[in-house]
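Supplementary Methods S3. Complex input for the 3,4-dihydroxybenzoic acid-bound model.
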Amino acid sequence: MARIIGGVGTTHVPSIGKAIAERKEKDSYWSPFFDGFHPVHRWIAREKPDIAVVFYNDHGLNFFLDKMPTFAVGAAAEYRNEDEGWGIPVSKSAAGIPELSWHIIETLVEDEFDITTCQDMLVDHAITIPMSLMWPGKGAWPVRIVPITVNTVQHPLPSLSRALKLGRSVGKAIESYKEDLKVVVIGTGGLSHQLDGPRAGFINKEFDQYCMDMLVKNPDDITRHSVPQFIEQAGAQGIEFLNWIAMRGALTGKVSELHRNYHIPISNTAAATMLLDNVPVGGQRSTAPARETVPA
Ligand code: DHB
Ligand code: FE
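Predicted complex, serialized as structure tokens:
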């Protein structure tokens, strides 16, 4: 059976792609952020995930404001990127695993999630940047992906509670998949940021810390915030945290924090990286290392 070995939350700011293209990872502006991925790389080298299930929001590349699904699941064999602006190079494609996608889709529909299914799907920086951060280098990414989009862009947005439940259903689906695969679940975007309007540049460190702490200990506590209340605390685009809470929902075992990095700012965003261990109830611990913290 497939096994969920852990979860990763990460920022997806487009200018990270430009920094990678220009080899700026060690520059003083960028290193506090890129260095935060070293523990993730060591974990990936040790655990060797086969599959990444990625919760993210599309920013107008695949879906535009005229047709915006609340939740959509990719079921393609390949996911291409295209020029989406931001001054970043077009990314390599990601390989898909349609059989697992359809298994997840069937479970979600059984659980009464009315999702959109996409057999053809472009993926934007919210997929390609996290993939490039987690699996750096030139060759093909060594995992196949299932992309799951959550609408964080056009109101009305799903509630935090709904996103958590979506993640729980996806977790159940993965663990009932027949093939012996190691799965990492990823949530991208956030943390606090606002890109436009009178509050452009808004960041809230205290609230980000609360979200990261509760993501591990008690994600249900975060769901007492309505979407407007969350946006007040985290900024208009900080609501991309919906992807993180869906990721957390998919971790069905005993969850503990292996690593976190938090750095203000990258572009307009409070940049965060978290690595969570998921130990199946009554099962074996992964070969996870002791908690490592890279100071902000
Ligand atoms: C920025 C952050 C985002 O989440 C995004 O999708 C685009 C830009 C930024 O901080 O520049
Ligand atoms: Fe974004």
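The pocket of 3,4-dihydroxybenzoic acid (ligand 1) is lined by residues 12-15, 59, 189, 193, 195, 237, 240, 267-269 (CB under 6 Å). The chain has ten helices and eleven strands.
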